[in-house]
Amino acid sequence: xxxxxxxRRPSPLRPAARRLACVLGAAIAWxxxxxxxxxxxxxPTAPSVxxxxxxxxxxxxxxxxxxxxxxxxVVDAVDPHGGVLEVRGDPTxxxxxxxxxxxxxxxxxxxxxxxxxxxxxAILSTxxxxxxxxRFDPNAPRLTCLNPSTGSVFVFLGGRVLPAPTQRRxxxxxxxxxxxxxxxxxxx
Length: 188
Prior knowledge:
Elements: E1 17-25, E2 55-60, E3 73-75, E4 83-88, E5 93-100, E6 104-106, E7 112-116, E8 122-125, E9 134-136, E10 142-145, E11 152-157, E12 159-161, E13 173-186
């Protein structure tokens, strides 16, 4: 006997979000890979249409490497130690990218190290080349379209650690969460 309730599918009225939890470490590193789409509740009267999904990949860690106590250290988004993630999806639809950035990173013993991200510490590029991209504030959401040929866009991330003069040695780690959502707007 067929079920009497509608099949639960993501509603086209609430676009499915893609979320990537990126681990920051030693002093900061991205980790992870493709994730499953976040669940979205279906509305009973909504048509049975799957919402578009995006794939988010962590390609390179944001790595501050060796940090000296009392001396802040900056890694620029164009630096080879800058973090890189790739968003892949439908190039005909606009996406909203927002990053949840940690204000501190921790050792396994709970010692913290402050991290900041300036208003130009991220770069958005339709190619794997930060020098042709556009700088933006990683603390604010960004609307963009994916490359019409490849269906990808790259986010390059830098930042600054602020160790205290008495900062303890150790491997520090934190988490960056990248949220990617289709806005429903078309791309040119």
